[in-house]
Amino acid sequence: MAGSTLEIKDLHVEIEGEKILNGVNLTIKGGEFHAVMGPNGTGKSTLASAVMGHPKYEITQGSVLLDGEDVLEMEVDERAQAGLFLAMQYPSEISGVTNSDFLRSSINSRREEGDEIPLMEFIKKMDSNMDELEIDKNMAQRYLNEGFSGGEKKRNEILQLMMIEPAIAILDEIDSGLDIDALKVVSKGINQMRSDDFGCLIITHYQRLLDYITPDHVHVMMQGRVVKSGGPELAQRLEAEGYDWIKEELGIEDETVGQKA
Ligand SMILES: Nc1ncnc2c1ncn2[C@@H]1O[C@H](COP(=O)(O)OP(=O)(O)O)[C@@H](O)[C@H]1O
Ligand SMILES: [Mg+2]
């Protein structure tokens, strides 16, 4: 089977009665890398959280389909089983669950009963991916995200990505807080995932990450929707000129959404 397709259509989201997303349209297919860029407070993280089913985010209009199946009707764990993966801007700590246990159960939840990944195969795969990402081996037995440094959390998210091999991943600010060496390692991991069976939405405030991961499509979010789409050259122009030219072109004065500070 060729890769999956995630279709986000006219998505409207409210948080505590306040409109945050105002009609997001995006289609991500297996084999494609998409970047969503935009200034702070324009709804990028809200998009990621809404697609993954964060309870605080109320969908008031629109749809999200994975290979034609209604994602919004699925529970959060069903979304993961269906092949969606979300790396969060602020990954949470899970006490009492080791990294290794979490990875194994995540992999197995996507396989048929009786077809669990053999332990040796799992260990081999985890070892080689940890080497690839230059992650210390003792991280496998530590509790998930507990006491992980910012950089360790991000590397670990990419380890999860490489182990779980989702159909579609949404990576929110996977580059934030990384030094240049960590950024290179993380990018290498993401690039290794490239295949017809994998589609990726990379949310980033900075163009920096896109020096290492070349997106096929670039989208700019303002006022809780996608206001401009293009190819990699769009990211280059944003790097050189910032976002003001888009605001001028579209007559946007305030690009943010939600409550103002
Ligand atoms: N969990 C939340 N609770 C309350 N308001 C939120 C929450 N998440 C986002 N918002 C609101 O949505 C707006 C957009 O935030 P966000 O999606 O994080 O933007 P971005 O990721 O583009 O910086 C914020 O300004 C805030 O008002
Ligand atoms: Mg954000």
From TrEMBL:
Q: Which CDD domains match?
A: ABC_FeS_Assembly
The answer on whether this UniProt entry bears the keyword ATP-binding reads yes
Q: Which family does it belong to?
A: Belongs to the ABC transporter superfamily. Ycf16 family.
Q: Per the UniProt entry, what species is this protein from, by scientific name?
A: Aquisalibacillus elongatus
Per UniProt, the keywords (alphabetical) are: ATP-binding, Nucleotide-binding
Question: Where in this chain does the record put each ABC transporter domain?
Answer: 6-248
Q: Which GO terms describe its molecular function?
A: ATP binding; ATP hydrolysis activity
Q: What is this protein called?
A: Iron-regulated ABC transporter ATPase subunit SufC
Looking at the record's lineage, which domain of life comes first?
A: Bacteria
Q: Does the keyword Nucleotide-binding apply?
A: yes
Read off the Pfam families from this record: ABC_tran
Gene3D superfamilies per record: P-loop containing nucleotide triphosphate hydrolases
**InterPro entries reported for this sequence:** AAA+_ATPase, ABC_transporter-like_ATP-bd, ABC_transporter-like_CS, FeS-cluster_ATPase_SufC, P-loop_NTPase
